[in-house]
Amino acid sequence: MKDVVFNEGRPKICVPLVGKTKQEIIKEVKRLENVAFDLAELRIDFFEDVEHPERVAALLAEINSIYKKPLLFTFRTKKEGGERELSLDRYFELNRFAIRSGLVDLVDLELFSSEAEVIELIAEANVKNVKVVLSSHDFFRTPPKEEIVARLVKMQQIGADITKIAVMPQSEEDVLTLLAATLEMKKSKADRPCITMSMGKYGVISRLAGELFGSCLTFAAAKDVSAPGQVSVRDVRSILEIMALD
């Protein structure tokens, strides 16, 4: 996918784009020219014109005119930590629009939305050669290891190309729970790339130790963060080099 291969070598670095206007987002994209990263995530829930398809299309077209790396299209719902809410129908319409646009490489779909709609969109994405990241976010707690593993396995069964879970630790032990679940996936359950992270200050180590435990991607901030505990691209790149297994 535009020369980015997941599950090979060091975790890939994804930079969020979180501008509220087209001008802000394009400025963010241009600022990435000299940043060492692998792909960008357009957090379209931050975009103030997200409910106007023609403006979303114009934004995607302009991004593609100046940006050549893979683009992950994400509308994070309010209940999973996003900036705004859409009706379920509008949520799926937006993601269907992105898949059909030919202007994105990956879309993020949330596990706890509508399974039937998710399966339908995955099938359409496969036809369009758009990869699907199936995700689950818990900004309040860290579920037990068995539940984390079960969610990730469920995502595989539904047909995700990449599985993702992000949880909030309340203790050091919670971080170990997330890492143990990730390692179990790596050792015996995962049959495709997996992204995991423990958020906040406690969880920073989980964003940096993916190569060891089995998370194929980490999110890092070029400027503005999109989740608690994100580290700068420069620092992440340096630490991934230090922790490399080869």
Automatic annotation (TrEMBL):
Annotated EC: 4.2.1.10
GO BP, one annotated term: 3,4-dihydroxybenzoate biosynthetic process
One Gene Ontology molecular-function label: 3-dehydroquinate dehydratase activity
Gene3D superfamilies: Aldolase class I (3.20.20.70)
Keywords linked to the UniProt accession: Lyase, Schiff base
Catalytic activity, reaction form: 3-dehydroquinate = 3-dehydroshikimate + H2O
The keyword Nucleotide-binding is annotated on this UniProt entry: no
Signal peptide positions on this chain: none
Listed InterPro entries: Aldolase_TIM, DHquinase_I, Type-I_3-dehydroquinase
Protein name: 3-dehydroquinate dehydratase
Name of the gene this protein is made from: aroD_11
